Every structure is written in C-alpha cells, then in structure tokens.
Amino acid sequence: MPDPNDLVAAAAAVRENAYVPYSRFKVGAALKAADGSVHRGCNVENVAYPEGTCAEAGAIAAMVAAGQTRFAEAAVIADSPVPVTPCGGCRQKLIEFAAPGATITMATTDGKTARMAVADLLPGAFDQAQMDNA
Ligand code: THU
User: Fold this and answer.
1) In this structure, which residue's CA is closest to atom 3 in ligand 1?
2) Which residues are catalytic?
3) Which of 10, 82, 91, 132 is most solvent-facing, going by the fewest CB within 10 Å?
4) DSSP secondary-structure letter at 7?
C-alpha cells in the first residue's frame, strides 16, 4: 500500500496555484502513476462557470499527457471543514484511470484525512462492458 503522505503534500503544493476568483475554494489533486511518477492539478475556474475544471481533472490530464494511464494512489486537498470529496463527474473520470486496488486520500489543509478505494467512489459507474452490444 503506497504511503499517501507525500501525495497529499504534492496536492497541497499545487493547490496554491488554483485559479478560483468565483468560488474562492482552492483544491489540489495529485496522482501517483503506475511507474511512480506524480502528476498534479488544481481547479481552474472560468467566468462562464460550467467551463471551470476540477483539480482532479487537471491531474488526470497531466498524467495522460506525460504518457501514463494508470494511477495507484490519488490525493485531493482543500481548506474545508471535512475532507473534500471528488464531485460525481470526477469520480467517473478517476475510475477510468485507476489501477486495481487504487486508493484516494481526501484531506483538509488542517490535517484531517479520509481514505477509501477509488472503486468505491461511484457504485454503478458506467463502464465499457455496458457497450458490448454497441
Ligand atoms: N472542486 C474541485 O476542484 N474538486 C473537488 O473535489 C470538489 C470541487 C472545485 C470546483 C470549483 O472550482 C470549486 O471547487 C467549488 O466547487
């Protein structure tokens, strides 16, 4: 089981770069790919609000751009009273790239954490098996 502490620190560092003039809610995310490399993302908002992107989506894009398509461990952090949890859309996005047994650590900037299996983030997630007759 990978130690999530370094990954939470990586997420905390990139969180500082979040562009959040509308929500003022900075989020950082980090993924440890199967080859051990770490990929980071922060939320990037837009004046056209639905065009904003979540930190998790940014980290996934960075990982794929670097040539990695599987992560073993994820971390997400925000200045929230309880550990921040990925939104529904990001749960589907994370599952796409999660290695078997991948875990996610959700953290607050004041040190609270929660950890769970990525596979448990979205029961009933859409998957390729459902397209077999397409
Ligand atoms: N947000 C994330 O980036 N990740 C999460 O896990 C929760 C929400 C962002 C989206 C938006 O920029 C801000 O937090 C408030 O919803």
Assistant:
1) 54
2) 56
3) 132
4) H
DSSP E strands in 38-112: the ranges are 38-42, 71-78, 98-108
Ligand 1 within 6 A of 52 CB?
yes
In tens, the pLDDT along 60-86 reads: 999 999 999 999 999 999 999 999 999
Query: What's the distance, Cα to Cα, between the start and end of the chain in Å?
Result: 37
Structure tokens at 98: 């999660």
Q: Which atom of ligand 1 is nearest to the CA of 85?
A: 6
Residue 110 exposure: Cα atoms within 13 Å on the Cβ side: 4
Please state whether beta strands 71-78 and 98-108 pair in parallel, antiparallel, or not at all (unpaired).
Answer: parallel
Cα separation of 39 and 124, whole Å? 27
